[in-house]
Amino acid sequence: MTQAxxxxxxxxxxxxxxxxxxxxxxxxxxxxxxxCSSLETLxxxxxxxxxxxxxxxxxxSADGRDLxxxxxxQPPWSDFPFILLTYxxxxxxxxxxxxxxxxxxxERPFHPAVLVNAVRSALRxxxxxREVEAHLKERQRTHERQALLIRELHHRVKNTLATVxxxxxxxxxxxxxxxxxxxSFADRIVSLSNTHNLLTEDYWQTAPLVxxxxxxxxxxxxxxxxxxxxDGPAVELSADLAVPIGMAVHELTTNAAKHGALSVPGxxxxxxxxxxxxxxxxxxxxxxxxxxxxxxxxxSRKGFGTTLLHRVLTHQCRATINIAYHREGLSxxxxxxxxxxxxxxxY
Length: 347
Prior knowledge:
Structural class: alpha/beta
Largest sheet: 5 strands, parallel
Number of helices: 11
Helix content: 40-55%
Oligomer: single chain
Strand content: 15-25%
């Protein structure tokens, strides 16, 4: 289908055969034309058309206020083209060209080629106007996207600073020496940075859950890949979920490296996750299971990792957490709604 087939020329010439003749001439060259029965019908169709051919007498015998309102209310990019059919040797009534604005005068009787050329020029002009409209809309969308990104950046920076502040205070409370504080705090900042890297690779949209586990656990695996098992579907986490979940994974890994399955050569960690579709929304279930490590005992006090799992994930992610200290190995079950919650981290 050609461009001419896709547009419509409206014709209003109710007296004589001008309308029928004009429509036939345009039809022969593949330009679709619609004959209107009244000025009201023509005005109603202007938004969906590209050009209008109107006889002088059609305007003189009708109330042109609706047409004048439509012309005056055009958006800034629009200057709708009209072709006004006049009589040879005479001048059109003075107010008609002013009423129509962008108007081409065509004396009758006219040669078919003259009408065709006038309409084609009008269609090209309208097409250029539509291109300007598309450009302006794209500029507006770009402006709106930039404004949204600025708001998102502001939100993320506030959350990140709050996260760092929380990590600083909580690490200080859970460590007993400057050296222990330094290493613990630095490791947590690196983990936070790794999660941010995953998010920025996708323009701060989502982070793959499996990559978050790999970032923390891959270097503990052996050559045969028997120590670390990751099993679950592809899950993309929104930024407000990825940051706290990434920190939780880091704390579980750190605990396993210090006291659990990763602290001995034969220890193993199996991580499995599933996504359930419920009436209330999608939920992510993560099961972390450690085996073949040192015998596990109930801790005498809550460390920062346990505090983070219970407080941060519960508050920021609306998650439910269950940690079991089985003698054969620690296990942790997390059940998390996959819905973005814009909350500032709490420690």
